[in-house]
Amino acid sequence: MSLHGDYDEQNIFAKIIRGEAPCYKLYEDDEVLAFLDVFPQSFGHSLVIPKQVQARNILEIDSASLAKVMAVVQRLTRALVDELQPAGVQVAQFNGAPAGQTVFHIHMHVIPRFTGESLGIHASAKADPAELEQLQARLLARLG
Ligand code: 5GP
After folding, report:
1. What's the 19 CA to ligand 1 centre distance in angstroms?
2. Which pTM does this prediction carry?
3. Catalytic pick among 105, 107, 109, 122
4. Residues 112 and 43: beta-carbon distance below 8 Å
5. Which of 2, 45, 66, 139 has the lowest CB atom count within 10 Å?
6. Facing residues of 48 across strands?
7. Atom in ligand 1 nearest the alpha carbon of residue 24
8. Measured torsion, CA atoms of residues 91, 66, 52, 11, in degrees rounded to the nearest 10
9. CB of 5 sitting under 6 A from ligand 1
């Protein structure tokens, strides 16, 4: 799938929003959902998505919805930094397969970076569920 095309209602994030697929939820309100990436590129790799808009990428989302997503990105980044004490944090967003996009519902990556640790391969190795559960509990306590 490229930069242009139709929104597929069966994409995995649409299923997560509808409750048809599970996620390690970190934050939810009427418009925005944040959860752990199950193929993390670093410890704490999280995703933030809009719930009400069927936008595949940054070209398609309205600016008000994007602003709501970014407010949650900032809040989550603060919680990740407080809890995990990374040396840096990457906030990333890909548009179109050639840019690295694999799920075609717009999302922001929040990726803590630790000194001496290189970035894991994108969407590659599935994390241990027990580790994700523990991490979720730690971050929920921060986001409270
Ligand atoms: P993209 O490549 O589209 O920018 O990012 C998609 C992200 O979604 C990847 O980082 C990938 O690891 C993650 N991902 C793919 N399938 C699932 C899933 O079922 N659950 C969760 N939580 N993340 C997923």
Report:
1. 16
2. 0.97
3. 107
4. yes
5. 2
6. 34, 108
7. 22
8. -40
9. no
